[in-house]
Amino acid sequence: MKRTLDLTVALLVLIAAAPVILLAVLLIRLRLGSPVVFVQERTGRGEQPFRIYKFRTMTDERDADGNLLPDGVRCRGLGVVLRRLSIDELPQLWNVVRGDLSLVGPRPLVPRYDPWYTDRERQRFLVPPGITGLAQVNGRNGLPWNERLEYDVQYVENWSPWLDLRILVRTVGNVLLGSGIAVDPTATMLDLDHERHLLAQGAERQLSGVPS
């Protein structure tokens, strides 16, 4: 039933949003350049990797040493609008059609985070990842990692069609209000692997009696 709903809704939204998608493609090509679609590997159900698709929202601007500038600098103007309206997420409907994603589920994260989940948090891999999820409607990028991942586990433990429906309704509301969007999440919080590596180092120092 979940798969049937995913496929039906994804196809209907892709058809309805076709003019918006075509306009986004044109504007991104003119303002931000090529490629129009950003592709990144994420970890999905059963800890299997897959490629996720999003519209490009950042330029390739670099500093004098050739390093990419921070996301908050490279994402502005059109990129900010695309993120505020969640238009950049529309290509992920193709991931839903392919079966990589569900409409609702734990948000898929990058593979380098895989070694840093607790056993409880690994329950997120028991279900298909989603475009939106319980964490996304309860704070999104404003939540600490522990809370975000706990919401993912709660979703797995309490899944029902009605829970999916409530999350989808709240997601639409959040999109219309533009709430919970962070242009540069790394400006306010560490990446999961970095944060937990630092915590592990601190714990080791405490055990060895070395001041942190």
From TrEMBL:
Organism encoding this protein: Micromonospora echinofusca
InterPro entries assigned: Bact_transf
Superkingdom in the source lineage: Bacteria
Chain ranges passing through the membrane: none
Pfam families in alphabetical order: Bac_transf (PF02397)
Protein's name according to its UniProt entry: Sugar transferase
Bacterial sugar transferase domain span: 2-176
Gene Ontology MF terms: transferase activity
Transferase listed as a keyword: yes
Alphabetic keyword roster: Transferase
Family membership: Belongs to the bacterial sugar transferase family.
